[in-house]
Design a protein that fits this description.
6-stranded mixed beta sheet; 3 domains; alpha/beta; Rossmann fold; single chain; Helix Hairpins; 20 helices
Length: about 600
């Protein structure tokens, strides 16, 4: 017997500002579906979810929800007018006997139902909206970035609840570990088309790359056919008085087909501008203690941060991660102990609250009005890495179009605001990055690029994040803040911390659906390689091969005996480049050898 869909969309079309978001979209959600909704920032994920929830009306098409079935949507910016407390809002619409569900969700999601709405932060409001949805338990839950503003413990609670629910859900999230653990199917929005694969997020990237590869092959074949037909059209004129009009029309149709193809959006051309090297010792903290009344943030804490370290701070919301970060940066004084900063530090900060962005300013003014980016006498240029660039050209590097340049910051999606903040951050030379929840709202491709940039960054990184996958990819040291002043330093990223803490059950659950290699849970976890070292060891062979190829090209160029006298500047540049790459090759080979020896336990 065929199942009756919980939600069926047929022929959905929607246009904003003249540009179609969707056209002729068909979509079905079945009972028990656990669907990842993925796509680039600005592709229409949140819009599609609002259409599914009935909050945005499509221009054309039909949406059918069977009688007796319910669809619930977690509001990003819930309207709480008329409610005194977060608990009043979260429990609205529930029967008296169901109020315990809100209290239970409040404990898991860590929000206080008694908190007055007027004093609640944006994060607390979103957690209340999520608690409301979980308590209502509709047949289909629509969850748009539910892990934003949740700490790792709350994310784990939500993951368990969704894993146990019998309801269907569609889930937008930047958190790879969360998506891998929960989803069984994937909806991919790409240039207005929605594709579905009956496999969870685990298989998304391989599927996406295959689709794009097939698309590139088809485009290549089309380009060859057009080139061939165009040659015939030109060469045939001299041989014939009359052209074959049918063939000419076919050539025009081929060109029209190519013109109608929507070009894939490229990756953001992000590049971190490294400043002068800092001293070898970046931060040294000894015996640091800090408390606010009875709330002990840290007690007798020691830490040495050296140039190039990637230090992650993890722990529950409110435990004091940001306070400890400020103490280590010299922005706040400890009650006891000392903090010494290294020499020549140039710090760039990514703030999770986006406080550096004025919502009323345009993107253009947000960049040109920044004193550190302003170019004297040039209203249309910004200073990027010491060189002037046109503001629109620089915005395009971060995937903003010319129309958006004059739009208000408040019109941007969460991911677009994050990209704008990265544009401001990356224009300024630095040798230490402070990243406070940088992964919120970013799409998978931009997260990958950010991770690669951090891998190649010459400076030091201090990172606060609840994204377990990102922590594993980036961190070389993890500081776990567990309350009551306890702050413990562990080698490696999140998975390494879990192993060293001895919580093998949690690690096993997280890795069950992960594509990453399982980490051996030995009694002596500090032997062998950390997660970050394993990742580095995997990357080094391709890096060495690339350097060898570049050296071979440079040596071939310099083998020309006339190059020095004919083009002395080019010869000198090639010489400098050859020396630089030979040094990098030697360093990479030594690093590979050291990691191989460590991996083998030598």
């Amino acid at each position: 017997m065929a199942r009756i869909p919980l939600l069926q969309m047929s022929g959905i079309s929607l246009t904003f500002g003249g540009d179609p978001v969707f056209s002729g979209l068909d979509l079905v959600v079945q009972p028990g579906d656990r669907v990842a909704l993925v796509g680039r920032n600005g592709s229409g994920k949140s819009t599609l979810m609002k259409v599914m929830a009935g909050l945005v009306e499509a221009d054309q098409g039909d949406i059918v929800i069977p009688p007796g079935k319910s669809v619930g949507y977690m509001e990003q910016d819930p309207t709480m007018a008329g409610f005194a407390t977060l608990g009043d809002y979260a429990s609205s619409g529930l029967e008296p006997g169901e109020l315990y569900k809100v209290e239970r969700a409040g404990e898991g999601l860590k929000f206080d139902p008694a908190r007055p709405v007027d004093t609640a932060s944006g994060g607390e409001r979103r957690r209340a909206a999520l608690a409301k949805l979980m308590a209502e338990a509709p047949d289909l839950m629509l969850l748009d970035e539910p892990t934003n503003h949740l700490d790792i413990e709350a994310i784990a609670w939500l993951e368990r609840e969704l894993g146990a629910t019998r309801a269907a859900f569609v889930l937008i999230s930047h958190d790879r570990a969360f998506l891998r653990a929960l989803t069984r199917a994937t909806l991919w929005i790409d240039r207005g088309a929605v594709r579905r694969q009956e496999q969870g997020f685990e298989g998304f990237e391989a599927w996406r790359d295959k689709v794009w590869d097939e698309e590139d092959q088809q485009r290549h074949k089309l380009n060859r056919l057009i080139k061939s037909e165009a040659r015939w059209a030109v060469e045939g004129i001299s041989a014939r008085r009359k052209r074959n009009q049918g063939r000419v029309r076919a050539l025009q149709a081929l060109r029209a087909e190519r013109a109608s193809q929507i070009k894939r959006q490229g990756s953001a051309a992000m590049a971190l501008e490294s400043g002068p090297k800092s001293g070898r010792k970046v931060i040294e903290a000894k015996g640091v203690s800090k408390a606010f009344g009875d709330h002990q943030i840290v007690r007798n804490f020691d830490l040495l941060v050296q140039r190039g370290d990637r230090v992650a701070f993890v722990g529950p919301n409110g435990v004091g991660k940001t306070t400890l970060l400020k103490i280590l940066l010299g922005q706040e004084s400890p009650d006891e102990g000392s903090v010494n900063l290294g020499t020549n530090l140039e710090v760039a900060v990514f703030d999770q609250t986006r406080a550096q962005l004025d919502p009323e300013m345009t993107l253009w003014d947000s960049l040109t009005g920044d004193p550190e980016m302003r170019v004297s006498g040039k209203a249309d240029q910004v200073m990027v890495g010491g060189q002037p660039k046109h503001v629109v050209g620089y915005l395009k590097e971060f995937l903003f179009d010319e129309q958006q340049a004059r739009a208000a910051v408040k019109s941007l999606s969460g991911g677009e605001k994050a990209r704008l903040l990265l544009a401001k951050l990356m224009a300024k030379p630095s040798n230490m990055l402070v990243l406070d929840e940088p992964t919120n709202d970013l799409d998978v491709e931009t997260l990958d690029l950010l991770q690669e940039l951090l891998d190649d960054y010459d400076g030091t990184v201090l990172l606060v994040s609840h994204d377990r996958d990102f922590l594993d990819r980036v961190a070389t040291t993890t500081i776990a803040m567990e309350g009551n002043g306890r702050a413990t330093v562990y080698a490696g990223g999140w998975s390494d911390y879990i192993v060293q803490r001895g919580d093998h059950t949690e690690l096993k659950e997280e890795k069950t659906k992960s594509s990453k290699p399982k980490i051996k849970q030995d009694a002596k976890p500090k032997t062998g390689l950390s997660f970050s070292e394993k990742h580095r060891l995997e990357k080094l062979p391709s890096e060495i091969a690339r350097l060898e190829a570049e050296i071979a090209k440079l040596e071939e160029l310099m083998s020309d005996p006339e190059l020095f006298t004919r083009e002395p500047v080019k010869f000198q540049k090639a010489t400098d480049a050859l020396v630089e790459r030979q040094e990098k090759l030697s360093a990479s080979e030594e690093e590979w050898l050291a990691l191989e020896e460590k991996a083998e336990g030598q």
